[in-house]
Specification:
The chain is α+β, with helices and mostly antiparallel strands. It is built from eleven helices and four strands, in the order H-H-H-H-H-H-H-H-H-E-H-E-E-H-E. It has a four-stranded antiparallel sheet with strand order 2-3-1-4, covered by helices on one side. Strand 2 and strand 3 form a beta hairpin. The protein starts with a helix and ends in a 14-residue tail after the last strand.
Length: about 300
């Protein structure tokens, strides 16, 4: 396939998945946070606080703040990231307004889907928001706001996106108390930040998680050849059985967790009696994996 066509297809896939992530995020925000006056973090949360206090539409605050951040971050994060982010900001601005109009009751309030179950609404909303953010980040985009700040820091420092976002979000959530003077809503806001952060980090780690295989087999050459066809590198080490004193080859393979099932199938199809050790790896840096970042 033409490389240019492949680029367009990949970019189209990114935008589609970014859109899905935004739909999840906005659903959590509009359907589970706004009706209960729960404040999430970031520019969305800032927009919510201003909306609670003045009635000024949350999507307008979100849009104005993000335009300023985009202009500042354009050089640092690169055009591809920012194009996706600009798309996300415009789409999310539209979707927040559209979904509010869609669910708003005739009296101007929003329906409380879970009735009096405020905490459950807090949990469900935060999970949807964290999952949505994870999908957006994994596809070279962001929803703007603190995501942009987090992406700038994460680009050069080995600090998790969730940790950076949480620090800023705590300050935004705390401002909710200035509007309602309600400790319960403040605590719900903090719970939202914690759950959203945990969901974001988990969703990103689950996809990026790497595993290491050590494979002991007499048919190591056939196994190595087939694994190499998948695009993953294979290292052959010289070993020796302590009991038998016989030399033997050991294969070392690093891959993403999602690829591990395929690797196992390859080994089993060639040598069902191979001895295989599989373990999680906390970090793999280099070609085909994550980029090394400074401390």
């Amino acid at each position: 396939m033409n490389p240019l066509k492949m680029t367009y297809l990949q970019h189209g896939k990114d935008l589609l998945l970014i859109s899905i992530g935004i739909v999840l995020y906005v659903t959590g925000f509009v359907c589970f946070q706004l009706p209960y006056h729960i404040t999430t973090g970031g520019t969305t949360g800032l927009g919510a606080v201003i909306f609670y206090a003045t009635g000024f539409p949350a999507q307008y605050t979100y849009f104005l703040v993000n335009i300023a951040l985009i202009l500042v971050a354009l050089k640092v994060l690169g055009m591809k990231f920012m194009v996706n982010t600009i798309y996300a900001v415009f789409f999310m601005t539209f979707l927040i307004g559209f979904m509010q109009d869609l669910v708003r009751l005739p009296d101007g309030t929003f329906p409380k889907i879970l009735g009096t179950q405020s905490f459950m609404s807090c949990v469900i909303g935060a999970v949807l928001e964290g999952l949505g953010l994870g999908i957006v980040f994994l596809n070279n985009g962001s929803t703007g706001g603190t995501d942009i700040v987090a992406a700038i820091v994460n680009k050069n420092r080995d600090i998790s996106l969730g940790q950076i976002i949480m620090l800023v979000d705590v300050m935004v959530v705390s401002s909710n108390y200035l509007v309602f003077s309600n400790i319960e809503l403040l605590l719900f806001g903090y719970c939202t930040v914690i759950i959203e952060t945990a969901t974001l980090d988990y969703s990103m780690t689950a996809v990026r998680q790497s595993v290491q295989f050590m494979i002991f087999s007499q048919k190591y050459d056939l196994i190595a050849t087939e694994i190499a066809k998948t695009g993953r590198g294979v290292t052959v080490l010289d070993g020796e059985g302590w009991y038998t004193k016989h030399p033997r080859k050991v294969l070392v393979v690093l891959c993403r967790r999602r690829e591990s099932t395929h690797i196992i199938r390859i080994i089993r199809s060639i040598d069902p009696y191979a001895f295989v050790s599989q373990g999680k790896v906390s970090g793999v840096f280099g070609e085909g994996f994550d980029k090394m970042k400074g401390k």
